[in-house]
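User: I'm preparing a small set of examples for a lab meeting where we compare how different chains pack in three dimensions. I only have the primary sequence for this one, and I'd like the structure in token form so I can line it up with the others. Please keep the answer compact; I'll paste it straight into my notes.
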Amino acid sequence: VAFFVCGGRMSYIEWSDDLKTGNRQIDAEHWGLFALVNDLHDKLQAGSADASIQATIEALVGYVESHFEFEEALMATGGYPDLEAHKQVHQRLTGRVARLPGRLRRRSEEL
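Assistant: Understood. Below is the structure token output for the 111-residue chain.
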């Protein structure tokens, strides 16, 4: 993952036009995912309150689930040839995001 300076702040991940799929809704949702990940990163780096971090994690978990479900349905309808491989990528990412609340709880317990 690369780091970028945007508007005077460090971004964990940066959206670029190279990532566009050509589907406006999917592109907007991908941008939204990037924004949530960057927000979470910023809060962790700033030492924000656990409640604020937890709210961002909850938003990210919900967003990932709904976005991947929508994207996979769209791909199935369109006959996307690599759907199963793409679903596996989604499953791995969903698993990583799903583990975030537990990681935050363990971090809070250690303090």
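A couple of notes for your slides: The helical segments are 24-46, 50-77, 83-98, 100-110. The CA atoms of residues 64 and 94 lie 7 Å apart.

User: Perfect, thanks.
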